[in-house]
Design a protein that fits this description.
The chain has 18 helices and five strands. It is globular, with a radius of gyration of 21 Å. It has a five-stranded parallel beta sheet with strand order 2-3-1-4-5, sandwiched between helices. The chain is an alpha/beta fold. Helix 1 packs across helix 3 and helix 5 crosses helix 10. The N terminus is likely disordered. The chain folds into two domains: 145 residues, Rossmann fold (3-Layer(aba) Sandwich); 104 residues, no CATH class.
Amino acid sequence: MPYMEKYRKVTRKGQRILRHWLGHLFPPLPQPDLFPSQVILHFSHHKCLTGYYNMIMGQLGEEFNFPMQHFGSNVRRFETAVINARKKGEFSLNNTSDFDLTHFPEFRGSHFIRDPRDLIVSGYHYHLSTLEPWCITQDYPWDETTRHPYFTSYVEADLQKFPKNVSYQDYLKTLDPERGILLELIWRQFGFTAMLSWKPNPYIIEFKYETIVGNEVESFRKIFEHYEFHPKLVKRGLTLVDAFSLKNIVKGENRHARKGTSGQWKSEFTPRVTEAFKNLNGNLLIHLEYEKDNHW
């Protein structure tokens, strides 16, 4: 690693640590002034700006001394943390709608969705190289995936070749792109079910990925206004929104982001993938208002 690049990385890390402790020792705002509600909740789906949102809120949390916690898809840990929150904070959850908001303290929230077809394609490419532990562990739990009827029909018909004692990533790499995307389609079903069963709530603002990307600052301005953030929090937050935006991230070293453009599925969905998606997910795209009918 060149000396100056290593120096910049060490410097950035030091700056983050300094901001964290300054925010802890000398918070720019007293806790009661941050926002009126007790907690901020965010709901999204894997490869739907989760990393982007968490970078923004995590940095704000460090600087303004409030906790920001992301729970993946672990709804029980999420619920426990929210219900037991003793100070104002932000909590985020992915890929599920299986929770009861009536037990939560006063909150404001947001919910992001993305075209499910692009979620599949984006996830496929990401899972080929990610270092997320669940994706590279050799004891990945394959039973639920291989029991799905579409696994035999579209991914692997030979029972002797079913994946065992292999990571999700390593098995994905053995498949051609069509079968790999079909595997992602099966893997995504839990999240797609959550999309279908999501219930709108007046305290939760709804956004589509396609609306946010390319219009990040104005989109997050609306989100922060919905949260009723203090003006200082809004100002700093919007600076971070621009700094961490996709146009800047893809220029840097972040492995989590690709181009992020909408409609990538059009060049990667084969007729077989399209058939499987329509058969398996029925009116999902109509329900989410991405299509008017199933004749796409």
